Structure formats: C-alpha cells, structure tokens
C-alpha cells in the first residue's frame, strides 16, 4: 500500500449541554422531628464476570481507531488470532483462527445479518458505520451456546453505545459528537454527527455518517482501479427506562452508491438497506429477561464500474431480508455463584438473486437474454434454536461453564431459470442444467447439537488459566447449496473468496461439525503496579465435513489462464496455532510522561485430510508497538511483520506472497471536548 498520511482531523467535539435544574432549599435547618428521607433505588451497571475468554474494545478504544479506518471490521486489527479478507473499502470479511465468513457469527446490536450478495460484498460488519459503535466483543473458538449457533469459528458482537438518561435532579440531558477526517491515499474524506436528548425516562438519539474515497495507489504509485467507494449511514434510537427495565427501538438506513472490488470480477454499483430492531432488557426478583425482535431488508446491485472498461454492462440484482428473535432468561442462585441461562433463538433469511437480461429480443441470440437469469429463486434459510447454560463459581479459585444447544436449519429454493432456452451454445446449454436442477428436491434440513465446556482456574490474583472444549456446527449457506449453473460465465460471477475462480453450488453438502480445544493462560504482574500482562492461547480444531471446493467434474473443460472452475465439496480438515498478547509498562518520567509497549503474535496452520492446504491461511504475523502519554498528548509507533506465505492451496491455485514489514505512526491530542489525530501509515512506502 502507498504511504498514507492520515491528517485525520477527528475533531470529535462533544456537546455536553445538560439542563440541570435542581430545586434550591433555602432552609438549612434540620429537625429531629422531620420524616426520614428514603433514597431512591440506584442501579449500578457492571460487566458480567464470565469464564469465557474474550477480547473487547470499549468506546475509548474505538474512538482512537475510527478515524484511521473506514471499514468497521478493521477496528479489530491488532486482535490476536484475527485477520481479514479485504474486498471493497468498507467490506472486509473477518477471519478468526483461520475460519472465515459465515463460520464467524456476527451480531450487530443483537441482529444476525448474513450477506445476500453472491460475492458477499455486503457482510454484516459493513452494515454499521464505525462511528456508531460503543463496544465490540470477540470470542474465539469456544463460544458460549447463548451467543448463538450456526458458527464454528467464534462470535463478533457489535453494540452501539448504551443509552444515557438524565439524572433525577436534571431537567434534561443533551449531548452529541461531530468528527471528520482526511486520508491522503485515495483522498479519503468523511465525517459523522450524532446527537441525543433525554430526560430521566426517555432518550432519543440520531447519528449520520458519510465516507468516500477515490481509487488508492499501491507502494509503486500505481492507481488501483475499482477501489473507490461512497458509504452513507443513518441510525436512530428511542429508549425508555423505568427502575431496572429498558426498552429500545432502533432503526436505520444505509446507502452505498458504489464500492469497487478489485479482487472480484464485479463491482458493487448500489446497495440500499433498512433495519428495525426492538430490544427489551429487564430485571426481576428472580433474574433477568433479555429479548429482541429484528428485521433487515437489502437491495443490492452489481455491475462494472468505469475502471473495468467492460464491453457491455452485466447487471446482477439481489434482494434479501434477515429477520428473527432472541429470548434469554438468566437466573442467578446462591448469591450469584450459580447462574442458569435458558433461551430460544430464530433467524430467517431469504435471497432472490437474478441477473436481468441485456437483450430481451427472443429472435436475436444473446449470451445474456432474452430471459432473466435466476440464480437463487426466493431461497430461504430458517434456523430455530434452543439452549441451556450453567455457570458456576466453585469457591474462590474455580469457575465452570457448561452449555448445550439444539438448532434446526431448514433451507429451500424455487426453480432456476437460464438466460435462454436455445441449445446453440458452445457449452452445455443452461436450460438443460436448469431443467435438471428444477427436477430435483431442493429442500434440505439439518439438525445440529452443540455443546461448550469451559473450566477456569484462578490460583491467585495474578494468574488465570482457562481450558475449553466446544462442539460447534454450521449448516451450508444458500450460496454454497443452490447456485446451479456450470457454464463459465455464471460460475465466474459467483465467489466470495477473492481468488478469480468460478464456483457452482452443491445441493448435497453436509453440515460442518467442528471440535475446538483451546487453552488460555493469562499472567500479570503480581505487584500492585500491574506493570505487565501476557496471554498465551494455543488451540486446535478438527472440522468434519469442512465445506471447501474441488475441481468441477461436471464442467465441459477447465480454463487455461490460471483460474479454475470449482464446485463446493465436503472434506475433513484440521487447524492449529497459537495467539500471544503481551503488554508492559516501561517507565514513567515526571517531565516526559509514560512509556509502554505491546506485542501481538498469531500463527495458524490449516490442512485438509487429503493433504491439500486450506485456503487463505494467514502466515505467522507479529505487531509490536511503543506508546507514549503525556497529559492530553498520546503517540505510538508500531511495526507489523508478516511472514512469507507459501503454504497455499493447490485446488484454487492460490498465490504465494513474500514477507513484509510495515511501520506506522499515530499521534493524538485531547482537549476537554476535542480530539485531534495525525498519523502516517506505511512510513517506508513499501510495496
């Protein structure tokens, strides 16, 4: 990547206007005859202590990063065990310990939103702007059953900021933020504004954001076509509170006029989505209830952006929706040393993926006409799940969590349709393939039984050890099951792997079952200074029926340009590796401030049992940085090293890459209500 000067004017101006009008009492005398004063009940929010190891970014962490990236997923850069498959400017796919895409369960404000695009250009993390996030939690491998099924890699939970209400002696609370940024590479600019008003019981929030970038340059100064984008987001929230009960209504709209995808054969030329989300959280004498209803609808279009220099347009339209509920009951016992959780979840999705004809004249032969090509005909994937979880504190040193979950996934689709019904083509006629597909039974059902077990040992105040096992399942996605054509042109239009190959589905795919084992050791400075901390986490996963790809045995021929035509297929696979995170306070000087350092290292290796490597495995990588703080001034310089990538997958003709080192510099100054950021990415300007 070309050196990127981040004159990131993140002028986050906080408008903290609160109309606090307290009644004045001019009578300062007291009397023993007065009635006793009964204080109102007070609720103190605290993070629940859980046995599950997790990585969390809070609002302060996100505020320091959000001006450096436009892609919400990239806020998690620097998290051990995580890497990213880059696509468009705001649509990276997160990878946890070598497992990617729909193997990672992503929740945005409790909503499960799967990508509807056949190239996965609108993943869940792209549905929320990074400026509208209050916290992000990552659970790797051993995910509690309450965090959802239908995933084998882990869970990423993104939450907007919790609503804040006025105090009892305040008339109202008015607050908000405004920020902007500029980045030199691609002339990326953007800004966001948010405002909220509340009294003691009701709060209303609005946030809006706009981000755009032109095509960026690589380290040699060459412009990379189809890398520009525009992204616009609007969101609102209406919240009500009383005693220990909270009711939230959230809604929003996203508009992406275009987003280039240099790693795909198509670009995103329009994406519009809306969502609604109703959330209730309430406390009772016997425990808590957390419930949610949500609905999301997306209209998505792909075609060629001008930089592609295509001979003729090729529109591809996809309409889809996600909807569902989640209900959780939490019952603490034995002075909260024992917690039982039981609940139910439903997630439904529907995709209609069709490619409009470019020539509708039935008498004129056309490769793309006269019919609309129907890839997925109102395909549906509905999942219903129930779960139970038991968390127990055994004295001061041991804690366990045991959970069981059952999910039923039901998939189906309507009949396919080819571009034309004429046999005068050089390949196997589309209409024959469509007839074969339509004559088969499309309905597929999957029954999944998950379990998770975590044991945590805390021998003292400065060390903690967590051993976990999880049996996790994932049913095939609609894009893995139902794409039916084996003609080259439709196959090359499908594929979220960023490898240029062509893909077709496999209606007979089996469900993935992963057996995950992980050990996490966390050791910190035993002194009161807490000057250092280190966390080491080796892991192993064995995945039965891992959904990968084989050469398409039904295709008439394979191309000779280095790309292949592939079909989804099941293979057993295994992955292993280690994540290491370390932090250390170096020294404090009265004049020069505080200095500290942090290190993040990750390694993962993945193979199929037939000997081939798994695709897109991140090689050994290390990030090391030094931070400095003095008053409101903060700065850091970090080095990122990525090793040579030569353990590549043969069936996809995956490319090898050389090792590289990047140096980045960041600086931030904070006044009372204003923050200013400046930075340079890739200081050495390396390709």
Low-confidence stretches: 7-34, 37-49
Give the structural class.
mainly beta
The portion of residues forming beta strands comes to: over 45%
What is the first-to-last residue Cα distance? 6 Å
Would you report the number of β strands?
32
How much helix, percentage-wise, in residues? under 10%
Output mean pLDDT. Answer: 90
Spatial shape: globular
Helix tally equals: 4
Radius of gyration: 27 Å
Account of the 3D structure:
Helix content is 4%, strand content 52%. It is mainly beta and 687 residues long. It is globular. It starts with a strand and ends in a 6-residue tail after the last strand. The model is unreliable at 7-34 and 37-49 (pLDDT under 50).
Quick overview:
By secondary structure, the chain is mainly beta.
How do the strands and helices of this protein lay out in sequence?
Elements: E1 4-6, E2 17-19, E3 55-57, H1 59-65, E4 82-85, E5 93-96, E6 99-100, E7 104-108, E8 111-112, E9 135-140, E10 154-159, E11 172-183, E12 188-198, E13 202-213, E14 229-242, E15 245-259, E16 267-284, E17 287-303, E18 316-333, E19 338-355, E20 373-394, E21 398-412, H2 430-438, E22 444-460, E23 463-474, H3 478-481, H4 488-492, E24 502-504, E25 512-524, E26 532-551, E27 565-589, E28 593-608, E29 621-630, E30 633-642, E31 660-670, E32 675-681
Parallel strand pairs: 7-10, 24-27
Antiparallel strand pairs: 1-32, 2-11, 3-9, 4-5, 5-6, 7-8, 9-10, 11-12, 12-13, 13-14, 14-15, 15-16, 16-17, 17-18, 18-19, 19-20, 20-21, 21-22, 22-23, 23-25, 25-26, 26-27, 27-28, 28-29, 29-30, 30-31, 31-32
């Amino acid at each position: 990547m070309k050196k990127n000067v981040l004159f990131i004017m993140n002028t986050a101006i906080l408008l903290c206007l609160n109309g606090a009008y307290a009644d004045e009492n001019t009578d300062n005398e007291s009397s023993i005859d007065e009635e006793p004063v009964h204080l109102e009940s007070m609720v103190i929010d605290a993070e629940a202590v859980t046995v599950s190891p997790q990585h969390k970014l809070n609002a302060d962490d996100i505020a320091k990063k959000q001006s450096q990236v436009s892609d919400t997923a990239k806020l998690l850069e620097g998290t051990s065990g995580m890497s990213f498959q880059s696509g468009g400017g705001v649509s990276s796919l997160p990878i946890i310990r070598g497992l990617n895409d729909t193997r990672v369960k992503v929740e945005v404000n409790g909503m499960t939103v799967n990508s509807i695009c056949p190239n996965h250009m609108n993943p869940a993390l792209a549905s929320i702007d990074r400026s509208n996030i209050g916290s992000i939690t990552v659970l790797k491998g051993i995910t509690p059953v309450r965090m959802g099924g239908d995933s084998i890699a882990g869970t990423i939970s993104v939450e907007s900021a919790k609503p804040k209400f006025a105090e009892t002696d305040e008339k109202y609370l008015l607050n908000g933020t405004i920020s902007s940024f500029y980045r030199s590479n691609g002339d990326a600019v953007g800004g966001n504004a948010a405002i909220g008003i509340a009294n003691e019981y009701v709060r209303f929030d609005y946030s809006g954001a706009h981000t755009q970038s032109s095509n960026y340059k690589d380290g040699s100064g060459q412009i990379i076509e189809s890398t520009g984008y525009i992204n616009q987001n609007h969101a609102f929230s209406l919240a009500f509170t009383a005693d220990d009960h909270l009711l939230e209504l959230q809604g929003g709209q996203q508009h992406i006029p275009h987003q280039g995808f240099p790693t795909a054969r198509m670009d995103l030329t329009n994406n519009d989505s809306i969502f609604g989300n109703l959330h209730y959280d309430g406390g009772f004498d016997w425990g808590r209830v957390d419930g949610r209803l949500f609905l999301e609808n997306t209209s998505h279009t792909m075609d060629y952006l001008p930089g592609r220099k295509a001979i003729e347009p090729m529109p591809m339209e996809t309409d889809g929706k996600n909807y569902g509920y989640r209900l959780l009951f939490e019952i603490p016992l034995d002075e909260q040393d024992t917690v039982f959780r039981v609940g139910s979840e439903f997630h439904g999705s529907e995709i209609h993926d069709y490619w409009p004809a470019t020539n509708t004249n039935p008498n004129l032969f056309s490769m793309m006409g006269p019919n609309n090509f129907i890839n997925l005909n109102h395909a549906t994937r509905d999942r219903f799940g129930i779960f139970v979880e038991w968390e127990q504190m055994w004295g001061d040193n041991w804690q366990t969590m045991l959970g069981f979950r059952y999910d039923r996934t039901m998939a189906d689709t309507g009949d396919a349709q080819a571009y034309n019904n004429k046999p005068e083509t050089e390949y196997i006629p589309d209409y024959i393939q469509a007839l074969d597909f339509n004559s088969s039974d499309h309905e597929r059902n999957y029954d999944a039984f998950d379990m998770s077990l975590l044991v945590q040992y805390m021998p003292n105040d400065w060390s903690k050890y967590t051993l976990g096992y999880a049996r996790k399942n994932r049913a095939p996605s609609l894009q893995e099951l139902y794409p039916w054509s084996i003609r080259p042109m439709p196959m090359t239009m499908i594929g979220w792997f960023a490898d240029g190959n062509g893909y077709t589905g496999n209606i007979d795919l089996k469900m993935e079952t992963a057996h995950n084992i992980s050990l996490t050791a966390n050791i910190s400075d035993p002194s009161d200074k807490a000057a250092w901390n280190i966390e080491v986490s080796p892991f192993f996963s064995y995945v039965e029926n891992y959904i990968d790809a084989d050469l398409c045995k039904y295709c008439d021929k394979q191309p000779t340009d280095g790309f292949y035509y592939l079909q989804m297929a099941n293979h057993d696979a295994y992955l292993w590796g280690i994540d290491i995170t370390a932090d250390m306070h170096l020294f404090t000087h009265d004049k020069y401030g505080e200095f500290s350092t942090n290190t993040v290292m990750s390694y993962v290796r993945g193979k199929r049992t037939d000997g081939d490597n798994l695709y897109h495995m991140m090689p050994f990588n290390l990030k090391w940085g030094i931070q400095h703080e003095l008053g409101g001034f903060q700065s850091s310089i970090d080095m990122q090293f990525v090793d040579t990538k030569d353990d590549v997958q043969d069936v996809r003709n995956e490319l090898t890459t050389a090792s590289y080192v990047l140096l980045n510099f960041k600086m931030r100054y904070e006044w009372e209500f204003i923050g200013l950021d400046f930075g340079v990415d890739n200081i050495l300007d390396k390709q």
